[in-house]
């Protein structure tokens, strides 16, 4: 899939007015509500126990099928907050991500799989800086990419399923409260630190979702993805680890069993649209092979954009959000950067 030229991208931006941008915000809210309602209606734990007698999981270290509930050890966890990351080829932003959260959590579990870049080297240097907080694991089995036919057919308890990979990372955490963090997220110190403090002190309870702004860069600046401006609290948030908290299979990717009915608001910037490959290197997006629709792939690769200033006006309450440039984020210099993996 070709990257749109600078002229075409400028034309796309010029077509974005406040009305479609606001429509995008409302559409995002609607999608979040629908997913939350669906999650409320399904008790995943009862479903899996009823149909399988257990929650399917494969212990890749012992090489055997197991019940995930025994690995979550919810009754013996220590007080505090664990963040967990699953990484593949995240060298561009992973160090910044780690630095933005490591001082706010009690434990950071990092699991990597199939990396062909410097990700393992970078996270090891982070571990050496914070040996009391960071633990690193390698998930060795090949994992089928999201949106691939292989993923769609692979059961959640297979070692090759991204679901098993996610549950492996969660099972490695040891604290009572956990949060999933991606390798392309930059957390804002003030709101994230305050939220973590409130959770530890009991001033805030779980589950509580968090939101992030989806950024996108071009050679002339950093923008907000108007097609999908806010990464809503669907699988992003703090939760108390229990036998009811785990990941399950969906035809395109994994889903988390919790629905966050409360939100702490925006606490991070999502940098997927600023990655060299637009974050698509870990997805199957090739025509004829992907489970995504052509329209969905187009939204991922050629979104409408709005300026940071217009986004701030639309949000109204974003005055406390720092401009991306003040956090050291810079737009790409090469217009020919690839956008697909």
Explain the layout of strands and helices.
Layout: H1 6-14, H2 18-41, H3 44-52, E1 56-59, E2 64-67, H4 69-72, E3 78-87, H5 94-101, E4 107-112, H6 119-129, E5 134-138, H7 149-153, H8 162-171, E6 175-180, E7 185-187, H9 189-201, E8 208-218, E9 221-225, E10 230-231, E11 237-240, E12 247-249, E13 254-256, E14 263-273, H10 294-301, E15 305-307, H11 308-315
Parallel strand pairs: 3-4, 3-6, 4-5, 8-14
Antiparallel strand pairs: 1-2, 6-11, 7-14, 8-9, 8-10, 8-11, 9-15, 12-13
N-to-C CA distance? 10 Å
**Class by SSE composition:** alpha/beta
| Oligomeric grouping of the chains | single chain
Count of helix runs: 11
**Morphology call:** globular
Taking pLDDT < 50 over at least 5 consecutive residues as the criterion, the unreliable ranges are 1-23
What is the element string, with H for helices and E for strands? HHHEEHEHEHEHHEEHEEEEEEEHEH
Whole-angstrom Rg: 20 Å
- Could you tell me the mean pLDDT? 85
Strand content: 15-25%
- Helix content, binned percent: 25-40%
> Quick one: biggest sheet?
11 strands, mixed
Strand segment count: 15
Structural summary, described in words:
This protein is of the alpha/beta class and 341 residues long. It has eleven helices and 15 strands. Strands 3, 4, 5, 6, 7, 8, 9, 10, 11, 14 and 15 form an eleven-stranded mixed sheet that branches. A two-stranded antiparallel sheet has the order 1-2. Strands 12-13 form a two-stranded antiparallel sheet.
